[in-house]
Design goal:
Helix content: 25-40%
Pfam families: SBP_bac_5 (PF00496)
Largest sheet: 4 strands, mixed
Number of strands: 22
Number of helices: 20
Strand order of the largest sheet: 1-12-11-10
Membrane topology: Lipid-anchor
CATH superfamily of the domain at 299-548: Dipeptide-binding Protein, Domain 3
Subcellular location: Cell membrane
Shape: globular
Organism: Lysinibacillus telephonicus
Distance between the termini: 76 Å
Low-confidence stretches: 1-28
Strand content: 15-25%
Protein name: Peptide ABC transporter substrate-binding protein
Mean pLDDT: 91
Radius of gyration: 26 Å
CATH class of the domain at 299-548: Alpha Beta
């Protein structure tokens, strides 16, 4: 009897295991899931409207564009299977991949992706009433700016056409040999026109009012709770999507609690705050789970705001008087000890991440010379801006020139995102360092915690700061991508409002320099002109360059060298092509893999003629 019972138990147990196995098995094996916690909530799924990085990260996995990149940064077909350009790169023609489907939030097919979808997408972006934050990029197309400004109202006059169901043509305002690199940006993504018209203003507000043609579908979208992405079974390239489910759990203290959650096996990736990095490296078990974050082409800098919009108690008018004095700006420029600031993120080798220009090294080159080594930018690129003696010299000059005009100490409002501990620590360090060097009788740095969600829209974009750490990533392979945030109507600090820089045509000197560079089509001369414009921006201390992006440490079960790679657009945010590792990569393994990847990338770029 005992033997029969044991046999019955064995059968029941086997059946239970089989049932569990079937639950996590979808013909190709066990379901792969990637889990992470986050603090910064997204506000919209409308990829045609947003310009926020965490919303780009979502869009990259839900929507495909015309092109994508491989793991070495070489452009690959996506929804376009082939393309060509005319001799001067003003007309580009794309053949659209046939059979790609739009699906709804339940994975049900809605329509085929066709050339007209890219026309409808650009129409939405360039319609000013939609307030797209990326419209300025799309004005590269002929008459794009004129349509946006209402100078023409017939969109058929804009340089984008569906020549037939699967043929798309762009006509550009000027020769643009780097146009392919721009197509990795959300403003050139497609949208189904019928669906857009049906949903109207509700488009992209929920998972139900969004269509998907990318690797994933949004299965759950509960703001400040959880968002879950699942593999799109109708995806045209689903064999290269290896993670079946992406689960992101909201936690307002995400950056603080994530390391412990990772150690407990509850999540698969966690940024490790600088405050605990050394402790992890000194622990025999923890140090095997920790690695550096791979550098990217985002650059970080401190912007001096010429149009402050904060409360009267912080004396914005007094700041405007001070910031319009070049010697005051130069005193801050040379007083900022960037190495001390970087220690809050990289305590082991901070100098390696400091960046003296807005455009980083290795971005573009001309005839083998890196852009940052072109005159006169080379002098800036090769010199540390921190110089205590110079800072104090400029302080004395500023005090003399501002006597009777500005009130000292000048209040300097410096906000930070409250969900980012390293940024909070760095702001405190910068406050103390600047005041100690320049004197609390000269400046009063006021550290302000900003919201964890909507920081860009509530603090940076409205200009509620005097001096603030900001960042910028390139949108295409041309130096103009790094000049745009500082031009008239740009994202940052309004340098066109600086007094004494308006020229005869009513534009600022910097704007005229950028316009001249953009109009030059000879690459060597073009880059020289951009280098001169960037040098002017920095020499006048409108900004203080700080660092390259991708700094810090992470514990992650993702291999960064499996991911698609590109400095431009949203490619880096894609999970397509990646797998969840059984164990996280150690720093030693990361360094070995990085060296191998760099070698392979150089070979791949040479082969591709880059």
């Amino acid at each position: 009897m005992k033997r029969i019972c044991l046999l019955l138990l064995a059968v029941i147990f086997a059946s239970f295991l089989a049932a569990c196995s079937n639950k996590d098995d979808e013909s190709s094996g066990e379901i792969s899931e990637f889990r992470k916690v986050y603090a910064g909530e997204i506000k919209t799924l409308n990829y045609l409207k947003t310009a926020e990085a965490n919303e780009f990260a979502m869009s990259a996995n839900l929507i495909d564009g015309l092109i994508e990149y491989d793991k070495y940064g070489i452009v690959q077909p996506s929804l376009a299977v082939e393309w060509s350009a005319n001799e001067d790169s003003t007309v580009w023609t794309f053949k659209i991949r046939e059979g790609v489907k739009w699906v709804n939030h339940e994975g049900e097919e809605y329509a085929e992706v066709v050339a007209q979808d890219f026309v409808d997408g650009l129409n939405y972006v360039l319609d000013a009433k939609n307030e797209s934050s990326t419209a300025w990029i799309a004005t590269v197309v002929k008459n794009g700016n004129a349509f946006y400004n209402g100078e023409i109202t017939d969109f058929s006059q804009v340089g984008v056409k569906a020549l037939d169901k699967y043929t798309l043509e762009y006509t550009l305002e000027n020769p643009t040999p780097y146009f392919l690199s721009m197509l990795n940006y959300v403003c050139f993504f497609p949208v189904n026109g019928d669906f857009l018209a049906d949903k109207g203003e509700t488009f992209g507000t929920t998972r139900e009012t969004t269509l998907y043609n990318g690797a994933y579908i949004l299965e759950k979208f509960e703001p400040q709770n959880e968002r879950v992405l699942v593999k799109n079974e109708s995806y045209w390239d689903k064999d290269n999507v290896f993670i079946d489910r992406l689960r992101f759990k909201y936690n307002k203290e995400a950056l603080t609690v994530a390391p412990e959650l990772f150690l407990r096996g509850e999540i698969d990736s966690a940024d490790i705050p600088t405050s605990v990095v050394e402790e992890w490296f000194n622990d025999e078990e923890k140090k095997t789970k920790l690695r550096q974050i791979q550098n990217n082409f985002y650059t970080y800098f401190y912007a001096l705001n010429f149009n402050p919009q904060y409360d009267a108690e912080y004396e914005p008018e007094n700041w405007k008087i001070a910031v319009n004095n070049k010697n005051f700006r130069k005193s801050l420029f040379h007083a900022l000890d960037r190495k001390s600031a970087m220690l809050t993120t990289e305590p082991f080798n901070p100098e390696s991440l400091l960046n003296n220009t807005i455009t980083p090294k290795n971005f573009v080159d001309v005839e083998g010379v890196d852009y940052t080594q072109l005159a006169p930018l080379a002098d800036i690129s090769n010199t540390d801006s921190f110089n205590a003696d110079l800072a104090l010299e400029y302080k004395e000059k500023a005090l003399t020139e501002l006597e009777g005009k500005a009130t000292f100490p000048v209040k300097v409002v410096m906000p930070y995102n409250s969900s980012m501990p390293d940024w909070a620590n760095r702001t405190q360090v910068v406050e103390q360092q600047l005041e100690n060097l320049l004197g609390a009788d000269y400046i009063d740095v006021i550290v302000e915690p900003g919201p964890s969600t909507g920081f860009l829209s509530e603090v940076r974009h409205p200009g509620k700061y005097s001096l603030m750490e900001v960042n910028w990533g390139p949108d295409y392979a041309d130096p103009s991508s790094y000049t745009d945030p500082f031009t008239e109507g740009g994202t940052y600090n309004k340098p066109e409002l600086a007094e004494g820089y308006t020229e005869a045509n009513g534009k600022s000197k910097y704007q005229n320099m950028v316009d001249a560079a953009k109009a030059e089509m000879d690459i060597a001369k073009r880059y020289e002109l951009f280098a001169e414009a960037e040098s002017f921006l920095i020499e006048e201390a409108f900004v203080i360059p700080y660092a390259v992006g991708g700094t810090g440490y992470i514990a992650s079960k993702l291999n960064p060298f499996e991911a698609q790679y590109s400095p431009f657009g949203v490619t880096l945010e894609k999970f397509k092509g990646q797998k969840v590792l059984a164990e996280p990569m150690s720093n030693e393994e990361f360094k070995e893999a990085l060296a191998q990847w760099e070698k392979e990338r150089a070979e791949a770029l040479a082969k591709a003629g880059k």
